[in-house]
Design brief:
- It contains 3 helices and no strands.
- With 83 residues, the chain is mainly α.
- The chain has a domain of 33 residues.
- It is elongated, with a radius of gyration of 22 Å.
């Protein structure tokens, strides 16, 4: 049975898998991305306008901006690689 599984895995690994999103058939993907970007920019603007944080706390503002991008699915790059 092990040989059977190995052969099957090899065959399946080379096959294309169609992916579909039936709920999004009539949806403009560009509009979805633009709306998410707008939401992220609105959050960033709110963070930058937060007068509760002093200039000495600028790091915290940048951290919140990076976290906003991460929540959107975008990485913080090397600026957020503390490990």
């Amino acid at each position: 049975m092990e040989l059977y599984q190995e052969i099957l895995c090899h065959v399946l690994a080379n096959e294309k898998v169609p992916v579909s999103f039936p709920e999004l058939v009539n949806t403009d993907v560009t509009k979805i991305v633009e709306m998410e970007c707008y939401k992220a920019l609105s959050k960033i603007k709110a963070i930058l306008e937060d007068d509760a944080l002093a200039d000495s706390e600028c790091f915290q503002q940048i951290e919140e901006i990076v976290c906003t991008f991460e929540a959107l699915g975008s990485g913080g790059g090397s600026r957020h690689d503390f490990g």
